[in-house]
Amino acid sequence: MLRESLYTLPSKRKDMLPKIAIVGRPNVGKSALFNRICQKRISIVDEQEGITRDRLYAEAECFGRSFLLIDTGGIDPSEKMPFNQEIRRQAEIAILEADAVILVVDGQVGPHPLDEEVSKLLLHAKKPVLVAVNKIDQPSDECKIHDFHSLAVRDLIGVSAIQGYQIAEMLEKVLEQLPASAPLPEPEAPPQKGIGVAIVGRANVGKSTLLNALLGEERAIVSPIAGTTRDSVDVTLSRGGVEYVLIDTAGIRRKKAETEVVDKFARIRTDEAIARADVCLLVLDSYEGFTTQEKRIASEIEATGKSCILVFNKWDLMKNFRMEHALKSVREEISFLNHCPALFISAEQGRNLDKIFPLVAEVYAERQKRITTGMLNKFIEKCLQKYHPPLIIGKRLRIYYMTQVEVNPPKFVLFVNNPTLMTESYKKYLINHFRESYGFSGCPLTLELRGKAPPPAAEPRLL
């Protein structure tokens, strides 16, 4: 049923698709149903209540009709669940923008007072509603759906999100409730992938605040409590004619601090977000400075070949401290990211946010840059004239020529006499001078050494 994730979905097409929201009280299987329809593990699923907090979107297709599916957090008006008011507000926004709603209930538990609360909320919104009685894992459980007629919703169907029972039938009923005039466009050409921008960093540095500020809406829950965001939230938008996909991620904690299973899932989601991004905004807390966690995240960004921009958030809290001094101290701690540009912002006050997208576009363009082999060989010649490779056990490294074999990220191959003669200091010397000549700001460079091919072995002669 999955057509494509929101990661590659143009915002114009997204706005034209009909929307179906999945709502319900906590721990009834909403995220499991969302993943089943999308046929992909987008939302984190766990037995613990209150796992999903922000709205998650994905495009899906059933019986030739495309629609946008929205997963929401569990609605619980009580005060026992953390962020319950924020989660409810996110769900209410989803209901407001949806064309139809699937109310998920637990068939094994039976009717619950919270189910009635959610049902009243939906009836008040006057949206087409279908009750999906989840966890109907065997035919003998079908009779349990009649217990939910008390919710005053006409259409009920028993489903199993885990086993995939009657999912297609459920979607058919929902699609029938959509207005006939609802536009269901087919793309004329394959959608162009936007620039993937992952907002990463440790917990509570202001990643979700930055996402909301860039979008100008309350898209992700913001709280001073660390670990509020758990799922990776994807949002597509256009700036200056360029398509971007912003990915808000969970704050990466030390492995010792991952006390819950959901924290481990959130970490996996963050790693996946970095892997599918083009540019990573490494958000730092200006007041707390650079920590061991940032070093680990920076190393992961570099290792996966992603471009990086250092974003010093909460700069409004800094008094009597110059930007140059803060940047210099960070450069000294992580010298391998000296090529990364830096921005000093305040997501809460909106300071310097207008500079983020132009800088992202600039760094992304650097990933696509290609240098001709002739220019590279002239560069190598100048480097060899200025500083020869050192002698190692009476032998010296010889570089025959250099060529670029890949872009995004750029990869270069050096053809040499013996790769083992390349020292780390000389490799750093080449990279530093290369950046001085050609830039590649924010982008990691890969230098691959290829030795001279050994002569072919002589064929045995017959006597």
Features:
single chain; 463 residues; alpha/beta; Rossmann fold; GMP Synthetase, Chain A, domain 3; 3 domains; seven-stranded mixed beta sheet; six-stranded mixed beta sheet; 12 helices; 18 strands; 31% helix; elongated; disordered N terminus
State the low-pLDDT regions, or none: 1-11, 44-52, 181-185, 187-192, 220-231, 256-263
- Sheet with most strands: 7 strands, mixed
Number of structural domains: 3
Overall helicity:
25-40%
Query: What is the arithmetic mean of pLDDT?
Result: 78
CATH top level assignment of the largest domain: Alpha Beta
The fourth-level CATH homologous superfamily of the largest domain is P-loop containing nucleotide triphosphate hydrolases
**Morphology call:** elongated
Number of strands: 18
| Rg over C-alpha atoms, rounded to the nearest angstrom | 27 Å
Beginning-to-end CA distance, first to last residue: 70 Å
What is the string of helix and strand elements?
Answer: EHEHEEHEHEEHEHEEHEHEHEHHEEEEHE
The CATH level-2 architecture of the largest domain is identified as 3-Layer(aba) Sandwich
The third-level CATH topology of the largest domain is Rossmann fold
- Largest sheet, order of strands side by side? 1-3-4-2-5-6-7
Category by helix and strand content: alpha/beta
Number of helices: 12
Strand content: 15-25%
